[in-house]
Sequence to fold (225 residues):
Amino acid sequence: EDKVVQSPLSLVVHEGDTVTLNCSYEVTNFRSLLWYKQEKKAPTFLFMLTSSGIEKKSGRLSSILDKKELFSILNITATQTGDSAIYLCAALEGSWGKLQFGAGTQVVVTP
Amino acid sequence: DAGVIQSPRHEVTEMGQEVTLRCKPISGHNSLFWYRQTMMRGLELLIYFNNNVPIDDSGMPEDRFSAKMPNASFSTLKIQPSEPRDSAVYFCASSLFNSNQPQHFGDGTRLSIL
Fold:
């Protein structure tokens, strides 16, 4: 059965800390791994990773994919209170672009 | 640029009533997805369309749920009759099929069945 597992489920950090979020997947016909950030409304797209070992960066956020070990990490450096959100990873599978989501990691950044 | 537009934003109704959720995908996108999000089960894919044709509805929980996409710019998700356990946030997302572009989500409809 296809599955996407995220860890930890939640964490609380202080502003300025670095956070590492984990995502492992077992998905048939895997194409890409996506990360989304969800605050109060819709998940908003962060990264799409298709190739192993190539880090993608956007400001203080970065992510990398390991297709051999079937996992991805999302790093947030110098965290700010605005980083507080649920971070979702999802495996893109098949020909039709179907996304299988993990349960998410809730990140709380305290001042 | 207009994103995915969903309506209504909130819906509160009594059990047994028919509920219709609406979605307008991003112009030019030809894949459309309906998701349901709850605390217990997270984000679940209900059904997805490609070029207005339903491709996989295996995530639809039961016959009370139905979805249509009469044209490229409009889709509906209907629940009839509604039950309290249908209470959730329902998201619509769209993407360009077979591209390297991600799915973009609407702001969702928060549905409460009393």
Q: What stands out?
A: Chain B has a mean pLDDT of 94. DSSP finds no helices and eleven strands in chain B. The longest strand of chain B covers residues 42-50.
